[in-house]
Amino acid sequence: MELRFTAVFRKVPEGYIGFVEELPGANTQGATLEEARANLREATEYLIEANRASIEELIQGGEVVREPLQVATAEVT
Prior knowledge:
The protein has one helix at 33-59; strands spanning 7-12, 15-20, 27-30. The protein has 77 residues and is an alpha+beta fold.
């Protein structure tokens, strides 16, 4: 499954900081923009996996319904 998010990178004296607009907690830094991009991808994947594991604990033993959710948002420029 492929998800699409908006990555934002800001130049700072040490290199770049990056975060995902739609996913609080997904943030990182890197000495170069390329490093920050790779680190942010990894941080985002880890955060999604950790959130899924937390939810599995929360719903364990209960009756649940899982279904796709599609939302529309304004285009980011």
